[in-house]
Design a protein that fits this description.
466 residues, alpha/beta, TIM Barrel, eight-stranded mixed beta sheet, 43% helix, globular, binds zinc ion
């Protein structure tokens, strides 16, 4: 009854004669036929083939020459020798001769611009990531409205890296501090219900608050990651299965290595514990050198990529750095000792079989989204990691971390079509990651010419804004 009343009340439908009216089943089958036809059209039209390219699939340290990689929609559908892969007639062909194809890169400690940023600014930041081959970002500080951004990126209404987002911080400081176990439990349940991908741990949490957060997280099925609160300590965060320890937070303190070289026996113990519990680390090396004052301000201010950030923001970074290093308690030699020890720690963690997840904490003091990855990669290699290990931390390891969310991180059939085409082999020199021919973002091809045009527009906008 209700159905017919509504039907008749609909003026568009009410004027239809009974002869032209179709049964719901007929309507459904028409819709399905139409959908299937348009999907098939879209699939064929959306096919892209990288023809005769050298593939670094990143499942191991192998290099496959003369491959053709076929993408349909937003998935890789086939990877095989160029002689055997059949390319659909209307597929777009990208010449891969002399080029190297790697999976899109992950930024495992990234950020959305702060709450209240304009949509235009948010989209600029996303573009800076993508322009450098960053196709996935784990956002490490939530604020209301971010989940909608994640969904808009997924739906393709905004161009940006795939986002996986930590909720608003579990911090012991400031107006949003979590001060009691009850409050922690409540916040975990709320963030799980709201749909955040993980919880963010910040400094200042009391031990019992941290434990209540961890217990509730286990109960509701959400992971927590980030800093090591001083009252909790490195060993407890590891034993409590914090999923990632970002910035190598807590290691230098645990090792007592602020003023002196690292004790190898103590280092071996903590490396083993980190590996045995499956805890991953996100190093963020150059960012931390800035944060502790080990970096050289003149060099930071000379970064060419600063032109892609608002001048006001760069001025703020400069003044924060100056304030920190002009503190009477600041010691440059101590900062340099810590920086050197952090390299020792990173190398030991990598050699000890700990999962390294690539991250740079962008946008953040002198860590410009996307551009910061090239500095991080070189720094990781300087610490003793091989280019393959560094790339694995940004591809395969990221895909494995998010394996319950989607399939990506390798150049392999079924994987999300996030790819970077390079003019030179990054296994022989990590700086070749910056020699791009283009980026594919969820099946959408952005040739380098388009990327450069987009970057020029952003730089020009900041010049005008000055
Ligand atoms: Zn951060």
């Amino acid at each position: 009854m209700g159905f017919f009343r509504t039907y008749a009340a609909n003026p568009l439908r009410a004027h239809m004669s009974s002869k032209t009216m179709k049964s719901p089943r007929q309507v459904l089958s028409c819709v399905l036929i139409f959908l299937a036809a348009s999907l098939a059209r879209a699939a064929a039209a959306d096919s892209v083939a990288f023809v005769d390219v050298t593939v670094l699939p990143m499942d191991s340290e192998r290099v496959l020459a003369h491959q053709t990689v076929l993408v349909t929609g937003y998935r890789i559908v086939q990877v095989g020798p160029t002689a055997t892969v059949k390319i659909p007639a209307n597929a777009r062909r990208i010449d891969g001769v002399g080029k190297f194809l790697i999976p899109g890169l992950g930024e495992m400690h990234g950020h959305n611009p702060p709450l209240g940023s304009s949509q235009a600014y948010i989209e600029q930041i996303y573009f800076l990531f993508v322009a450098n081959g960053v196709t996935t970002v784990r956002g490490m500080l939530g604020w209301p409205g971010q989940l909608e951004l994640r969904d808009q990126v997924k739906a393709g209404t905004i161009t940006g890296p795939s986002l996986y987002l930590a909720g608003p911080s579990f911090t012991g400081n400031g107006a949003n501090a979590v001060l009691s176990p009850v409050a922690a439990e409540q916040r975990v349940r709320q963030q799980k219900a709201e749909g955040w991908d993980l919880l963010k741990v910040h400094p200042g949490l009391k031990l019992e608050v941290y434990d209540a957060m961890a217990k509730t997280a286990d109960e509701v099925g959400i992971r927590f990651a980030g800093h090591v609160p001083a009252a909790v300590g490195l060993v407890h965060t590891i034993e409590r299965r914090q999923q990632t320890i970002d910035h190598l937070d807590g290691y230098i303190e645990y090792l007592g290595a602020e003023e002196s070289p690292v004790d190898p026996a103590k280092l071996a113990t903590i490396v083993k514990l980190t590996r045995d519990t499956g805890t991953a680390v996100v190093p963020t090396m150059p960012l931390w050198e800035t944060i502790i004052g080990a970096a050289d301000l003149e060099k930071l201010l000379a970064y060419p990529e600063l032109r892609y950030m608002p001048a006001k923001e760069v001025a703020r970074w400069k003044s924060v750095y100056e304030r920190r290093t002009s503190d009477p308690k600041f010691s440059k030699s101590r900062a340099l000792q810590i920086a050197a020890n952090r390299q020792t720690v990173l190398k030991a963690l990598a050699d000890g079989g700990v999962t390294i997840l690539f991250g740079t904490d962008a946008p953040q003091e002198f860590s410009v989204p996307g551009f910061s990855i090239h500095r991080e990669m070189k720094s990781n290699v300087a610490a003793g990691l091989t280019p393959y290990e560094v790339l694995r931390s940004a591809t395969k390891n990221v895909g494995e971390y998010f394996k319950t969310k989607d399939t990506f991180g390798l150049v392999a059939p079924g994987h999300r079509a996030d790819l970077v085409l390079l003019d030179a082999n990054p296994f022989t020199d990590i700086s070749n990651v910056d020699k791009r021919a283009g980026v594919m973002l969820r099946g959408r091809w952005l040739p380098e010419s388009e990327i450069q045009a987009g970057l020029a527009k952003i730089a020009a906008a900041h010049v005008v804004a000055k």
